[in-house]
Amino acid sequence: MRVITGTARGRRLKELEGMETRPTTDRVKEGMFNVLQFDIEGRRVLDLFAGTGQLGIECLSRGAKSAVFVDRRSDAVKLIRENLKVTELTDRARVVSGDSMEFLKQLREQFDLVFLDPPYEAGLLEPAILHIAEIDILAPHGIIVAEHPAGKALPALAPPYRLHRTYRYGKIAMTLYRRDANTESEE
Fold first, then answer.
1. Which range, of 92-101, 129-138, 162-171, 178-187, averages the lowest pLDDT?
2. Which residue in 1, 76, 112, 176 has the fewest CB atoms around it within 10 Å?
3. pTM above 0.70?
4. Domain range annotation of the chain
5. pLDDT at 120 (0 to 100)
């Protein structure tokens, strides 16, 4: 598992032992960043259910302003910190050890990009999407990137959020939600 491009291009990231964490495959990651390539530079990123931290690290390598990584597993948190050190990206990163859903409940900041890739069987993806829209943590024109099994349909959201598009990569799918600009007119 390597960083695709940017300042940390080619750096090898460490992976977690065991089967509990399923890193995003190279094919999906490449497709994801081809879609997002013009939406990263200068943006604030939230990598929930971060695992190895590879998605947020890829964003930092590509010029994201900052990234927050959240994972409940202490071995994952330790590994994210190690991967940030290896890529020399710790100065723009914050790593949070704790439950991702609890983190969302206490959140008081906005992000431009939110990555959601919880363990598929945990049933956390839909609640996370709905909660993000409810507490409105996405900045105007922000994007939620949700990775999920290809056969699973994700919920539609009320404006200003909208389900933008789903991309399929074999058995894995990636769904993008976008937040429209604020609609209040300035007079």
1. 178-187
2. 1
3. yes
4. 26-179
5. 84
- 64 in Cβ contact with 92 (< 8 Å): yes
In angstroms, the first-to-last Cα distance of the chain is 51
> Residues with Cβ < 8 Å from 36, sequence gap 6 or more?
113, 143, 145
**Cβ of 110: how many Cβ atoms within 10 Å?**
16
pLDDT digits (tens, 9 = 90+) for 153-176: 899 999 999 999 999 999 999 999
Count Cβ neighbours within 10 Å for each residue of 71-101 and write b for 16 or more, e otherwise. bbbeebbebbbebbebbebeebbebbbeebb
SS3 state at 43: coil
Q: What is the homologous superfamily of the domain 26-179 according to CATH?
A: Vaccinia Virus protein VP39 (3.40.50.150)
Element (DSSP H or E) covering residue 187: none
113 closest CA partner among 185, 154, 58, 167? 58
State both tokens at 100. Answer: 């991702």
The pLDDT value given to residue 18: 63
